[in-house]
Automatic annotation (TrEMBL):
PANTHER family: ENOYL-COA HYDRATASE, POLYKETIDE BIOSYNTHESIS ENOYL-COA HYDRATASE PKSH-RELATED
InterPro entries: ClpP/crotonase-like_dom_sf (IPR029045), Enoyl-CoA_hydra/iso (IPR001753), Enoyl-CoA_hydra_C (IPR014748), Enoyl-CoA_Hydratase/Isomerase (IPR051683)
SUPFAM superfamilies in UniProt: ClpP/crotonase
Identification of the protein by name: Enoyl-CoA hydratase family protein
Top-rank lineage group of the source organism: Bacteria
Amino acid sequence: MLVRRSSADGITGLTLDSPHNRNALSARLVAELHDALTAAAADPATRAVLLTHTGGTFCSGADLTEAGTGAEGPLGLARLLRAVVELPKPVVAAVNGHVRAGGLGLLGACDIAVAGAGASFAFTEARLGLAPAVISLPLLPRLDPRAAARYYLTGERFDATEAARIGLITVAGEPEAVLGPLLDGLRRASPQGLAESKRLLTAGVLRVFDRDTQDLADRSARLFASEEAREGMTAFLERRDPAWAR
């Protein structure tokens, strides 16, 4: 299993546990996480979902060893992100590690995200000949536009304080200290109150999914299949600079 499940006091825990590839969004991990979210949605005992990770990386983005498999990969990721947004129960992410590329889309889809001092973030797609296409579905409606332009284009790393400032996460603070009050607040809310409040919060994001999913999935597939992206991904896997780097 690449996604471990637990349950306690109304909170279903989902832990990304694929350390061999830094919790990359492989087809298997995406499918397991989608199934776990579906099960949590159907479980009347689940009041909220807590998404965490093992190791020093929350999620490294797409599994580059599976790149070039057509539009199904991007569409599968879009379906996963939509499942997080549409889930009638709040999804809380707790991060104490690195988050890159597609992993940022997973954070953006969550309702609440907490990250500690050990977290770092970067949109690395442009450096690989790609673009943060599908993950823009939940991210662009929530990010500060100027900050999105800077980090989409430069691929710079930034910390949890900056992630909170630009709207990527909710709170910059150690999860162990922050989660208690947050989860207690969710437990005190009624299931109907949570579901309807979340429906209000996510309506605009879901309109973006309705409008742009197919276009962005097609764009992502086209970019992954390009010569420039192949060079960028190969250079990354070989730990060298791509041909265009100066």
